[in-house]
Amino acid sequence: MAGSSAAIVAGLTAAALVTVGYLGHQAAVSVPADLRHPSAGTPAGVRKDHRDGPAALPARSGAGERIVYALDRDRVWLVGENGEVRRTFGVSPSTVDPEPGAYRVTSRSGAVTGSDGVPIEHVVRFASVGGTAIGFSAAVDGSAPQLDPEERTGGIRETRADGRAMWRFATIGRTVVVVP
């Protein structure tokens, strides 16, 4: 009986690894060309209109339901299927950034302790860089992280209200597009 249980667990583990590998491959091949080779931003002195303001959804950030994370702007957009921005908000970045490209939400945790020792909630992970998990989370006490540039952290902090919105939207497999 124990041998058949081990075989079942091994089979389920192998199936899970194949699924994660497939989703990773799908995310990698779906990266738009302009995200693989980002161009320079808006030149200094060029006036932006209201559609290009700091909260405007970045151009060429994918299509369909997705989360868009702009590294340079420290901002996130939750985008509906029709391209409508459902919510946008600023975030406190981590010390380790993912490369621009398309990812998928791979895991979620309701409540854990962050790498900085602060209790966090609504953790949504989507990437890993050199063994550091990258994801969105909210500190239970509402604090922003005190980043030590020498410490590798992957937690992108948001407010508790934004964390609740992210949690409802960012289900397993949801696309996350990272732009420069």
TrEMBL record:
Give the residue ranges for region: Disordered.
34-59
Name under which the protein is recorded: L,D-transpeptidase
Organism of origin is: Streptomyces edwardsiae
